[in-house]
């Protein structure tokens, strides 16, 4: 193989894989100029590189929304640093993932196996991106809201581009005609971070754990067992109110609760919040 052919093959391999010149040159030489075998060679090498990076912490990144025909999909894609989250390759990858995520109704397993524009799977492209950028990158979580039973509203906080930001909230509301109110409820969710719609949606282990912490704090401060039990009931009720959407103070008017706002704006039927999600990039990682 001539030097010209070698350089042409290296250039083509770089365009196909996004991998650096040196690695592509080795791949071409190891596989006698065969592009397909060279891609496989780099893929294996890329997997080895990626596996070393997957033990790191990835708590930066982006949350993205894709909406069409009143259906909404949201996905969180993480990187190790905010610098990479602004990288054009990461951003381009994330935008395409957001669209595919919508098409597969936010099914992560289907998403990973889906083909991207370059003909390779999402998983293969993810490995290539990790190898190219040199950071751990993960598709962390996703959610989908169909257009049945209610209207969907979303809000993006700290937007870097349209439908891309650091905090994303989506809410499905039944019997609502006021779109502006729907958007404000989505904004409230982003700002107030509720854990559930009401008390029934809070996991028992969450309440039990909080109660355990409250009691321990009271006893450590010198309160007797009986008094600690009495005070803890009031504190746990406040915890429930602070963390359930309907009981939270409305951010637009803290003298009212979210439930009051729904009551004030109802027409023929009760306005009902069916479901919501709030993705804050890196939260809980």
What is the tally of helical segments? 11
Which strand-content bin applies to the residues? 15-25%
- CATH topology annotation of the largest domain: Tetrahydropterin Synthase, Chain A
How far apart the termini lie comes to 49 Å
CATH class of the largest domain: Alpha Beta
Mean pLDDT: 90
Largest sheet entry: 4 strands, antiparallel
Give the tally of structural domains.
3
Residue windows where pLDDT falls under 50 for at least 5 positions: none
Describe the structure.
The protein is an alpha+beta fold. The protein folds into 3 domains: 3-53, Orthogonal Bundle (Helicase, Ruva Protein, domain 3), CATH 1.10.8.10; 60-173 and 274-280, Elongation factor Ts, dimerisation domain (Tetrahydropterin Synthase, Chain A, 2-Layer Sandwich), CATH 3.30.479.20; 199-273, no CATH class. The chain has 11 helices and 9 strands. It has helices spanning 3-17, 21-30, 35-53, 82-85, 88-103, 108-113, 122-133, 179-192, 204-220, 225-243, 258-265; strands at residues 60-68, 71-79, 138-145, 151-157, 164-165, 167-174, 249-250, 253-257, 272-280. The strands form 3 sheets. A 4-stranded antiparallel sheet has the order 3-2-1-5. Strands 4-6-9 form a 3-stranded antiparallel sheet, with helices on one face. A two-stranded antiparallel sheet has the order 7-8. Helix 3 crosses helix 7 (122-133). It is elongated, with a radius of gyration of 25 Å. The model has no long low-confidence stretch (mean pLDDT 90).
């Amino acid at each position: 193989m001539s030097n010209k052919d070698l350089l042409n093959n290296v250039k083509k391999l770089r365009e196909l894989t996004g991998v650096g010149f040196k690695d592509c040159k080795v791949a071409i030489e190891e596989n006698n100029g065969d592009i397909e075998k060279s891609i496989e060679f780099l893929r294996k090498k890329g997997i080895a590189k990626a596996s070393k990076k997957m033990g790191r912490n990835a708590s930066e990144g982006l949350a993205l929304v894709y909406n069409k025909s009143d259906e909404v999909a949201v996905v969180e894609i993480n990187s190790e640093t905010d610098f990479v989250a602004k990288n054009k390759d990461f951003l381009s990858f994330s935008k395409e993932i957001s669209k595919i995520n919508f098409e597969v109704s936010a099914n992560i397993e289907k998403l990973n196996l889906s083909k991207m524009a370059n003909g390779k799977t999402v998983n293969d492209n993810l490995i290539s991106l990790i190898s190219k950028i040199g950071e751990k990158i993960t598709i962390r979580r996703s959610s989908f809201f169909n257009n049945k039973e209610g209207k969907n509203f979303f809000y993006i906080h700290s937007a870097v581009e349209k439908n891309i930001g650091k905090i994303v909230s989506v809410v499905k509301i039944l019997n609502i005609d006021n779109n502006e109110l729907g958007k404000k409820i989505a904004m409230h969710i982003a700002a107030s971070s509720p854990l559930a719609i009401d008390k029934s949606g809070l996991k028992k282990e969450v309440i039990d754990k909080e109660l355990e912490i409250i009691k321990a704090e009271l006893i450590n401060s010198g309160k007797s067992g009986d008094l600690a039990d009495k005070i803890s009931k009031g504190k746990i009720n406040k915890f429930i109110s602070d963390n359930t959407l309907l009981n939270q103070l409305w951010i637009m008017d803290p003298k009212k609760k979210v439930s009051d706002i729904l009551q004030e704006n109802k027409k023929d039927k009760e306005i009902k919040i069916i479901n919501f999600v709030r993705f804050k990039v890196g939260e809980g990682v």
